[in-house]
Structure formats: structure tokens, C-alpha cells
Amino acid sequence: MKIIMQRITNFMTRSSEKNRPYGKSFSVAFRTLSLLFILFTLACSKPAGEIGAIVQPEDTKLKVFWTDTAEVYAYSKTYDTVRTGGLNTTLLGSLMDPTFGLTVTSFYTQVMLDRAGYRFGDNPILDSLVLQLRYNGDSYGDTTSMLTVHVHQMLENFQTDTTFYSDIDIPYDPFDYANFTFRPHPHDSVAIGEDTIAPVLRINLSNMSPALGNFLLTTDTTIMDSNDVFIEHFKGLYVTVEPVTEDGVLVYFNLLSSLSEMIIYYHNDEDDSLSFIYPITNVTKYASKYEHDYSLGTPEFMAQIIDGDTALGSDRFYTSGLAGIATIIKIPNMHSWSNLGTIALNEAKLVLPGNSEDTILPPPNYLSLAEITDDGSFAYLPDDHDLAYFGGYYNPDFNSYTFRITQYLQSLISDPTKTHNGLYLITRGASLYPNRFVFNGNDPLTDTIKLHLEITFTDLD
Fold this sequence. Notes:
Helices cover 16% and strands 33% of the residues.
């Protein structure tokens, strides 16, 4: 570089002496040589990324590595109940999933007096009794399926100050006041006389028998003077559907809508067109019931879920909402990473790909991932502070879910005494969302994309 610079200087000096006073030829030469000087200077510089690399001793450089071969495996099992009491949305329907088997969703609900102190007048005669439920517009499954709904009178009331779960079971009269077959129309408005209202399902409770309507019409006036006394007198309704044998659909209803109510139509000696409303409100109690028959699923599914063959999770495993299927994920060898020296995890991603052969029904929008504690309960992972970072969203481009669990895995490396009981994976919002998904295991038989960890780490030693 010094020789080149010296030659440039000498040439510029000779040119300046030869061409004094400064004429046009010198000006051209000067500009040319200035450009050459800049180009040579740039040619002899190092890229910014290499500055200091020569003077840094080789044994002091940080070593960053990436791997996707850390051991991880999973298997699925049924999980306990989910809370269903007090939710403003409920599900009614039946779904036959060729993989997961049968699901039936039902609900119990109280009704109350629209106004206390009401009188039905002299000689009230029943015209009809209708249970009206407001669709909320959502469904899961095939809405062209036919459902048969059954409505029973509850024999016992909801327990006071009790949290209600998906296995709720309240005794009811076996007589069915509905036996009504319908096809859901969650988006179609309904004409009632000269009026048109938002989408509702109307179930006539007097076609099979007038008994329930007459029971209400003949209620003692002292009972009609108090909602508390009335709810104790008429304990409520159990609404369920007949199990389907194929296809089917689960339909969402908004029980807190002003259109969700029981209506009695009647006439008396004074008027021939009367009605009274029994609304469902946030004062009344209601809760959903979810039932699953996994014996109607595929043999592979039954062997893992019913028989408990956890080894089958290496091929595929499962999740579903409505107190359905959960997954246990184990990462058995993270503690041994501490034997490698001082390891700092830059990023650790748990990648959960879907099975390409089973995409029959929509997947969950989100999944939840928690740590299983020593007492069998669940705790938030340290990475679960921001969903945008933590993950768990369904990626339709890759038919997969991804979680960042960097801090959790680092805690296993940094503290070899910390117990790893596994991670617990379920559908987020499992109290309301039935969505299911089939994952590839860590050694799938058919797909090439498998359950795995992607870890970027730095060796600080």
C-alpha cells in the first residue's frame, strides 16, 4: 500500500511541475489520480464484520451453534373437566369425528319471571310453550346435518355457590317435551307473525304434551310474586340432542341475549292472544355438559387414548377442546446439557407439525402450553409473558404450531436439580372451542416433518 501511495504522489508531483501554471491537462490528471486514490483506499479496507477478528485470539471467540436433534417426544390422553358455568355462550349439538369419535354437547338452564306478580287471568288456556335460543352465528361441523333436540324438566336445582364444570349431571324428568328435528340456520333471520327477528332456534315444548305449559299456567300466585320462590318451584330445563351416527355439527347459542327465553302463549276469558316471557339472564344459572365416546374413533387413536399406549405418540398425537384430549410433551435430556460447560440458549423453539393425512375439521386457532409441577398441577412457563413472542398460533402455511420455550429450557440446564415433569398442551379456550388437531410425533410413519426442537445456543467456555 505504501509503494502504491508513493507512486501516486510522485506522479502527481511530476504532473504538477510539467504543467505549471495549472492548465487543463493538469486538472484532468489530478481528478483521475484522486479517483484512483479513493479506489485503492477502499480496496485495502476490511468489511465491518471482520474488524477486530485478526487481533482477537482464536480461543476467545464465542461459539454459536444450532441443532434440531435434541430429544423430545409426546403422547396424548384425556383430561379432566373444564369450567362451563356462567359462560355467555353455550354449545348444543352432536358431532361424529372419524378420528376422535363422538361428541355430544348439552346444557342446563334456569329461567326467571319477566316480571314478578304477573297474573294469567281467569281461566287461562295454553296455546303453546316455546323455548327460543339466539344463535350467535358460529358452529363447528357440517351445518347441513340434521339434529334432534330433546328438552326435559329438571328435578333438582343448581347447587348454590358452586362452580359448574363440563361433567355436570343434574337429575331430570325422563319425559321429552321436544323431540324436535331441525337443521341449524345460524345466519337466517326468523319471521314470527308480522315481525322478523335475528336468527333464533324455536323449540315447541307443547307438541308432545301440554303438561309443562299447564304446570306453568297453574302456578300459585304466591309463587309468581317472587323470582327466588319461582326458581325453586320450576327448577329449569335440560336441553340435549340425540347422538348422530355420521357428520353432525355443534352450534353456538347466546343464552344472555334478550332473544333467549321461554315464552308461553295462552288465552283467557278476557283475551285470546296473550303471552308471558321467562328470560334467561345473568341472574339465572346455566352450564354446559360435554360428553365424548372415544370408542368410536380410529383404532390408533383408541389404542393411545383409551388403552394408554403412549409409544404410539411417536407416530402421531392429538388435542381437542371441550374437555377432550390433552398432550404430554417430554424433553428428557436437557439437564445433561450442563455437562457440556457453560451453555447459554439464544433461542429454543418447540415445533409441532400437523399430520398431512388428517385435516378433516378446522384446527384450533391457539394452543396453550404449561409446565407440569411436582404436585401434578400446572404453572405458566417463564416464556409465557407475551403471546406474540411465546407463540402457539396456528400457521396455515406450514400446518403447524410453534412455541418459544428458551427460558424454560435454560432453567433446566442451569439448575440440574429442577424436576422436568413434562409440558401440558391443550386447546386454548377449551371451555368453548371444540377444535381438534392431529400432530406428527417425533418419528412419524408417513410424514417427513416431525415433532422437534430447534435450539440456537452459545458455548461460553
